Amino acid sequence: MGRRRIVLDTNVLAAALRSSKGASYNLLLHLGGDKVEFCLSVALALEYETVGKRAASGSRLTNAEKDDVLDYLCAECIRQKIYFLWRPTLKDPTDDMVLEVAVASGAEAIVTFNKKDFGAAAGFGIKVLTPKEFLGSLGGKS
Fold first, then answer.
1. What is the pLDDT of residue 140?
2. For 37, how many CA atoms within 13 A lie in the half-sphere containing its CB?
3. CA quadruple 49, 55, 57, 58: dihedral positive or negative?
4. What confidence score (pLDDT) does residue 115 get?
């Protein structure tokens, strides 16, 4: 089986920045590896940056360290251009942005902690999984 293509919801990245003990962090360890392709758009990268740098993010990383993580993420991800907006499909416009990247990139799954928010993804043939569920499907630790 080839590399599996996914899109991370912002809450997964935020959780990975807060702690190195959970499935979100373990999923990010696959970045640049041979099992998973991460996809993002410019708008989603900016959302990652905004959320990751909030003062109340709970992360112990400095902004410079967060910049390093975001730079690496942007360097290793498939940068997907969005030519067609599927809005409004979901209740939250930032969730629509994640869905649009998944549709445009042909992603297999959206990885999120808010599965119920992405119910319409199934209509596009996209799975919605938690980080733990996705890692389990890889045979990895969660």
1. 52
2. 15
3. positive
4. 96
CA–CA separation, 24 and 69 (whole Å): 14
Higher pLDDT, 142 or 38: 38
Task: Give the ranges where 53-114 is alpha helix by DSSP (H).
Answer: 63-76, 93-105
* Packed helices 10-18 and 63-76: angle between N→C axes, nearest 10 degrees: 130
CA distance 139 to 60: 29
Q: Token digits for 113? A: 């902690």
Q: pTM to 2 decimals?
A: 0.92
d(CA 59, CA 62): 8
Do residues 31 and 38 make contact, with C-beta atoms less than 8 angstroms apart? yes
Q: Helix (H, G, I), strand (E, B), or coil: what is residue 9?
A: coil
Residue 47: its pLDDT value, please?
94
Provide the pLDDT confidence category of residue 56 given band limits of 50, 70 and 90: low
Considering only the C-alpha atoms of the chain, give the largest distance between any 2 of them, rounded to a whole number of Å: 41
What 3-state DSSP class applies to 111? Answer: strand
Provide CB contacts within 8 A for 74, sequence distance 6+.
Answer: 40, 45
Residue in 142, 136, 130, 139 with CA at minimum distance from that of residue 8: 130
Q: What is the mean pLDDT of the chain?
A: 90
